[in-house]
Amino acid sequence: MVNKMQTERITVRLQSSDIKAVDLMIKIGEFISRSDAIRVAVKELVESRTDKALDKVEKMKKMQKLAALADALEEYNLK
Description:
This protein is mostly helical.
């Protein structure tokens, strides 16, 4: 069940085959509701993608530093 953390409601469009699969999982007791299934799926997605997202952020920071160095070098060469 959901703990007392603040939640927000969103609307999601899913393919009917995915909804049927979720409903089947509810029927066999894997989840208590569609909301529960979606909550678990989103949590697992966030957990599985966090490292990948952090790697992208680090790469972007490195690229920004390289771009700044390239700009500084270009200015130096123009003098």
